[in-house]
Design brief:
single chain, 648 residues, Jelly Rolls, eleven-stranded mixed beta sheet, seven-stranded antiparallel beta sheet, flat
């Protein structure tokens, strides 16, 4: 029987897609061959069948039935089961039968975040030995491929299916997630399922549903993304105006004198060639991360100018905001995605037209890599005007805060990744979530609020009010500090710490402050990260007695000599300063920025004493730098975590 077509709410780029309803029942891939289902929680099985038909299912000895809705979707609710298996799942309807074999009941973990969670076992340290020893038929791996959507989807796009852990499946799987799951297999002694859903370079807002966005003060972003689904041109213009308002406040440029104006008086230089600016041979740009302005003139006849058109400028690394004749026409944030912007009739002018692009690069290479052959202005009558040459550039020398990004972007959007890579999981049973993200949110205030809102939103979706979150705190990365300094990385670590404290022991930190690499944002010690994630998960998900994170600051009090006495909780054995008689990395600070100074720490048991120096002390900081040097550990080999604490 030929597949029938029904329409339902799969929203991508604002459209409704035609989706085939199978001629016989089809199971959601989350419940396919080799799946691990969460023990001791109700088991919800999902799939598709003919609209309105009754389906019945057997899982082990249990049988349930349901009726497919008008979109052909069904859900079957089985009672909770104890760990065990393998089981066969069979779904039967008048239209046919579907089945899945080798299902296990155990513990299921969702691992998510950005590139450090995404980094594969094959790229981590000691990969060869670990891959060779990866055979475990009771450890199952499931990878969700990258995808975005403007509205929540009900189906995953591309998935690996459930794979047994082996030298074939382990190399491409998330290293941090794999090593956590492997460690938990040894201690929990039940089947473990690990679901990996990550995207390098993503901000936390991209992983948040609309309720979480609104709860964290991002209602405007959610609403603008919804407008983009209905009218992309109108939303692009609105996002451009938001960017322009940000620029004027950040730069103090007066209206009409901004760099995107057609006659902006910048130090324009000819672009040597289309390509990354680091490859131009220009000394100023050889290792430049920041903003560069580009512009290109196009001259049109009156007949050409009356037409609608499409502007294609190729990819921009990392992000762009683009104008035509001083008016915003579009923006993007995926470094590898060519930018193509629609121009309505009336946008072009007879004679001179000026295309202006702000390219903002934060890491690695930047600019307009081309190729030049795809850069063009295509008019509605079919005329194609190449624009791959003749560009000028000007370096933005001012240091400015991070600009706003369009909420429909892939990695810097609002809900875009959540809609396609988390929402389709529905109410799948989970034991816990491992979260490894934050690098892309450095210097964006309010991370603790966003973290709290995201955790609340995921708990609501998965139906587990106490769902545990094990959160990897940012590792050390960047230049070593030789004197006390302000640090965006340290500030974000503190927000992660505060978010965990506020979560009332449902979340825990896995510290990585000693595992990073000053010159590599992707440190290779993921096996130790996984071990620390597993330790945290045992404490918050299994109730194990060991401290989840290692030494954590508990209290600070003044000493008689004007210094501070610091007390730590969760210390295994006692504190020790490695390779020195003093603990380093501590700072005594006054109330104002720039008032901190290093202080030597004297360690005793679970306390550290900092001597006074005759200057005012209002707070104490520890490991407060992008890449701090530390030496304070406990007997379990866990570092004391970074912190800032007021001194009463």
């Amino acid at each position: 029987m030929a597949a029938r077509i029904v329409r339902y709410g799969l929203a991508w780029l604002g459209c409704t897609l035609a989706v085939p309803v199978a001629a016989q029942p089809v199971l959601d891939p989350l419940f396919g061959d080799g799946a691990v289902l969460q023990r001791e929680q109700p088991i919800d099985i999902r799939g598709r069948a003919s609209p309105g038909e009754t389906v019945s299912a057997t899982l082990g000895e249990a049988t349930e039935s349901a009726t497919a809705d008008r979109d052909g979707r069904f859900e079957l609710a089985f009672a909770a089961m104890a760990a065990g298996g393998p089981y066969r799942l069979t779904v039967t309807a008048a239209s046919g039968t579907a089945s899945a074999d080798d299902l296990l009941i155990g513990d299921v973990f969702l691992c998510s975040g950005q590139s450090n969670m995404e980094l594969a076992v094959a790229r981590a340290q000691d990969a060869g030995n670990q891959i060779a020893a990866s055979n475990d038929p009771l450890l199952r791996l499931f990878t969700i491929e990258r995808a975005t959507a403007l509205q929540p989807l009900r189906d995953l796009d591309k998935v690996s299916g459930w794979l047994r852990s082996s030298p074939d499946s382990a190399p491409g799987f998330s290293a941090a997630c794999f090593y956590m799951a492997q460690d938990l297999r040894r201690s929990a002694d039940v089947p473990i399922g690990a679901i990996h859903s990550s995207w390098g370079g993503s901000r936390i807002s991209a992983w948040m549903g609309d309720d979480a966005l609104k709860a964290s003060g991002q209602r405007g972003a959610a609403d603008l993304r919804a407008l983009y689904a209905r009218d992309s041109s109108a939303a692009s213009v609105e996002a451009g105006y938001i960017w322009q308002d940000w620029w004027r406040k950040a730069s103090s440029d007066a209206p009409g004198r901004e760099p995107w104006q057609p006659d902006a008086a910048l130090d324009w230089q000819p672009v040597p060639r289309i390509g990354y600016w680091e490859d131009w041979g220009v000394a100023e740009l050889a290792a430049f991360n920041g903003m560069v302005w580009f512009r290109r003139e196009v001259f049109l006849t009156s007949a050409q100018a009356r037409q609608a058109a499409t502007l294609a400028i190729g990819p921009v690394d990392d992000a762009d905001q683009t104008w035509l004749n001083g008016k915003p026409v579009g923006s993007g944030g995926n470094p590898g995605k060519p930018r193509v912007y629609a121009l309505a009739g009336g946008a072009l002018r007879a004679g001179r037209n000026v295309i202006t692009v702000n390219a903002n690069d934060s890491y690695g290479k930047g600019g307009m890599p081309g190729p030049a052959s795809i850069m063009q202005l295509a008019l509605a009558d079919g005329t194609v005007i190449p624009i791959g040459d003749g560009w000028e550039y000007a370096v933005e020398a001012r240091t400015l805060p991070r600009p706003p990004r369009a909420p429909w972007e892939d990695t810097a959007g609002a809900g875009t990744i959540y809609n396609a890579m988390i929402a389709p999981l529905g109410r799948i049973g989970l034991k816990g979530v491992a979260w490894y993200q934050g690098e892309s949110d450095v210097e964006l205030p309010g991370y603790a609020d966003r973290m709290a809102a995201m955790m609340a939103g995921w708990r609501q979706q998965f139906g587990v009010a106490e769902l545990p979150f094990a959160i990897v705190q940012l590792a050390n990365y960047g230049a070593h500090a030789t004197s006390p300094t302000e640090s965006g990385w340290a500030a974000l670590r503190e927000e992660q710490r505060q978010a965990v404290i506020a979560d009332n022991r449902r979340a825990a930190l896995a510290l990585a402050i000693d595992l990073g690499d000053p010159v590599d944002i992707h440190p290779g010690q993921k096996r130790e990260v996984g071990r620390r994630l597993a330790r945290a998960m045992r404490a918050i998900a299994y109730g194990a007695g060991d401290p989840p994170s290692g030494p954590a600051i508990a209290a600070a009090e003044r000493t008689t000599n004007g210094g501070a006495l610091l007390t730590f909780n969760d210390v295994t054995g006692k504190l020790a300063s490695r390779s020195s008689g003093i603990a380093i990395g501590f700072e005594l600070c006054g109330p104002q920025p720039g008032s901190c100074r290093f202080a030597p720490g004297r360690v005793s048991g679970a306390t550290v004493t900092l001597p006074g120096d005759g200057q005012p002390v209002a707070r104490v900081r520890y490991a407060w730098a992008d890449s701090p040097a530390i030496n304070l550990f406990d007997a379990a080999g866990l570092p004391a975590g970074p912190f800032e604490i007021p001194l009463p």
